[in-house]
C-alpha cells in the first residue's frame, strides 16, 4: 500500500478526511510533508483524550490534607549555614544541572520572537535569556564550576532561539555547556473533535506542556548524559521569572541532607491569587490542588506557629534528584485540557484568525509527577526575593513589576 492510500484509510477511520482537502493543489514536497506528518499522529490517543473530556466528571472526593513546608526566613542562621555549605560543595563538585523551560512565544508581550528574547528596560536592556545566563555565570564564578544549562525549546521557536544565542555569542557562557532540546507536540482539535490545518500542507500542532520535559530529556539522551557527568540534582524552572534563584545551595543542601527526591519553592498565596492552585496532600500523596477544593474554612486554617497551611502556591521552581528525573521520564502523566485560540485554514483555503478560543489543547504538567512520590520538600521563600514572572502587560505579573523587583535585587547584590 502506498503512502497516500495508507493516509486516506487512516483518516477515514478517524473521520478526519478534511485534512486532505487541498492535497491535489500541493507540490510534491508539500504532499510528502503532509502525509508524513499525518502518519506520525496518534489519532487513537488524541481522540480518546477529546472524548474523555466531553464526559461529565463527578467532583472528586479525594482526601485533602496539609503538605508540610519549611519557611526559609524561619530557619536559624547556624542551621541554614550548615545546609548552604552542603549545597555549595555539591555545586562546586559539578553535581547540579539547570533546565530552563523556554518553549513559548512572546505573543502576549507583543513580541514575534521566543519569549526568552523579551527585553526589560534595564540600562542597557537585557533579555530574559541574558538574565538567566548572568545568574548562572555568577554561580559559576562563585563556586568555581561550569553548570550545564539545558534549554527546552519548541519546534516553533527552536531555530530562532539557537540563532539568537549564536548572534549574542552565547552571552559569554561556555558554548559546550549550553544544550538545546525540543519538547514534543500534539495536534489541537476544534470543538467538534476535528484536527485543523495550520497551512495547506501542515496540521496544526502545539507544545504539550511543561510536563513533557521528562520524556524529552530522555528521548534526546540527556538523562543518560547527566548520569555520565555525575549530576545528582537538576533544577527546572521557567524562562520568565527574572529574580528566581536557580542555583540555590540551601535548597540543594536541604534536599540532599533529608534524602528528598523532589522539592519545590513556594510563595504564600495572596488575595489577588484566589484562583491559584495550592500544594497539599491528596489521598496521602504530594499534589497541587485546585482552589475549588479549598473551602473558605480550609483557606483560613493555620498551624501551631500561626502559618497558613493551604496557601502555598507553585512558582515553577523544582529540584529533582537524577534518580527522580529518570523515574519521571518513564511515567505517562495525565493530560489537562485548555481552550485556546488558534489560527486555521478554512474550507476555502483562507487563513482565519479567530478572536475567541476555538480549539482544545492537551497539556501535561510537571506538578502531576509529585503524586508518584511519598513526600517532597517545600521551601517557602519571600515573594519579593524570588517571584517576578513576566506574563502580560496587565495584571500582577507585568514587565514593570518584574523590573522593579529585579533592580531592587541588583541593588541588594551590589
Question: How would you explain this protein's 3D organization?
Answer:
The structure is a single chain. This protein has 13 helices and 22 strands. It is of the alpha/beta class and 414 residues long. The N and C termini lie far apart (69 Å).
Structure annotation, total helices: 13
What number is the mean pLDDT? 94
Q: Give the strand line-up of the largest sheet.
A: 2-22-14-17-13-3-6-7
Helix/strand class: alpha/beta
Poorly predicted regions = none
The profile of the biggest β sheet is: 8 strands, mixed
Supply Rg: 23 Å
Alpha-carbon distance between the two ends: 69 Å
User: Any idea of the CATH topology?
Assistant: Spore Coat Polysaccharide Biosynthesis Protein SpsA, Chain A
Secondary-structure arrangement, i.e. CATH architecture: Alpha-Beta Complex
How would the global form be characterised? Answer: globular
Report the strand count. Answer: 22
Please, how many domains?
A: 1
Report strand %. Answer: 15-25%
Helical content stands at 25-40%
CATH homology-level superfamily: Spore Coat Polysaccharide Biosynthesis Protein SpsA, Chain A
CATH class: Alpha Beta
Amino acid at each position: 500500500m502506498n503512502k497516500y492510500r495508507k493516509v486516506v484509510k487512516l483518516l477515514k477511520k478517524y473521520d478526519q478526511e478534511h485534512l486532505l482537502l487541498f492535497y491535489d493543489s500541493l507540490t510534491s514536497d508539500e504532499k510528502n510533508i503532509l502525509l508524513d506528518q499525518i502518519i506520525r499522529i496518534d489519532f487513537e490517543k488524541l481522540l480518546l483524550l477529546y472524548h474523555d473530556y466531553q464526559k461529565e466528571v463527578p467532583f472528586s472526593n479525594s482526601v485533602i490534607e496539609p503538605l508540610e513546608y519549611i519557611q526559609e526566613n524561619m530557619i536559624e542562621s547556624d542551621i541554614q549555614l550548615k545546609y548552604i555549605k552542603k549545597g555549595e560543595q555539591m555545586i562546586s563538585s559539578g553535581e547540579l544541572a539547570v533546565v530552563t523551560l523556554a518553549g513559548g512565544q512572546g505573543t502576549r508581550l507583543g513580541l514575534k520572537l521566543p519569549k526568552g528574547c523579551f527585553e526589560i528596560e534595564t540600562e542597557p536592556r537585557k533579555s530574559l535569556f541574558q538574565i538567566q545566563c548572568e545568574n548562572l555565570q555568577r554561580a559559576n564564578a562563585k563556586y568555581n564550576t561550569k553548570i550545564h544549562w539545558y534549554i527546552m525549546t519548541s519546534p516553533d521557536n527552536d531555530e530562532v532561539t539557537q540563532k539568537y544565542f549564536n548572534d549574542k555569542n552565547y552571552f559569554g557562557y561556555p558554548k559546550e555547556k549550553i544544550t538545546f532540546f525540543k519538547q514534543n507536540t500534539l495536534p489541537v482539535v476544534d470543538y467538534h473533535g476535528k484536527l485543523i490545518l495550520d497551512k495547506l500542507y501542515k496540521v496544526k500542532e502545539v507544545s504539550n506542556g511543561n510536563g513533557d520535559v521528562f520524556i524529552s530529556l530522555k528521548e534526546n539522551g540527556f538523562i543518560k548524559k547527566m548520569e555520565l557527568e555525575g549530576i545528582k540534582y537538576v533544577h527546572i524552572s521557567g524562562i520568565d521569572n527574572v529574580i528566581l534563584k536557580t542555583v540555590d545551595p540551601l535548597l540543594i543542601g536541604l534536599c540532599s541532607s533529608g534524602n528528598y527526591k523532589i522539592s519545590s519553592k513556594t510563595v504564600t498565596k495572596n488575595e489577588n491569587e484566589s484562583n491559584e492552585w495550592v500544594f497539599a496532600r491528596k489521598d496521602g500523596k504530594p499534589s497541587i490542588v485546585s482552589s475549588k477544593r479549598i473551602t473558605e474554612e480550609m483557606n483560613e486554617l493555620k498551624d501551631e506557629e500561626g502559618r497558613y497551611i493551604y496557601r502555598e502556591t507553585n512558582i515553577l521552581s523544582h529540584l529533582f534528584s537524577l534518580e527522580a528525573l529518570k523515574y519521571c521520564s518513564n511515567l505517562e502523566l495525565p493530560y489537562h485540557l485548555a481552550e485556546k485560540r488558534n489560527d486555521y485554514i478554512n474550507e476555502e483555503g483562507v487563513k482565519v484568525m479567530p478572536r475567541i478560543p476555538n480549539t482544545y489543547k492537551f497539556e501535561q504538567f510537571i506538578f502531576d509527577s509529585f503524586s508518584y512520590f511519598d513526600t517532597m520538600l517545600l521551601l517557602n521563600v519571600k515573594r519579593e526575593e524570588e517571584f517576578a514572572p513576566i506574563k502580560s502587560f496587565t495584571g500582577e505579573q507585568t514587565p514593570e513589576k518584574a523590573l522593579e523587583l529585579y533592580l531592587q535585587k541588583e541593588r541588594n547584590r551590589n
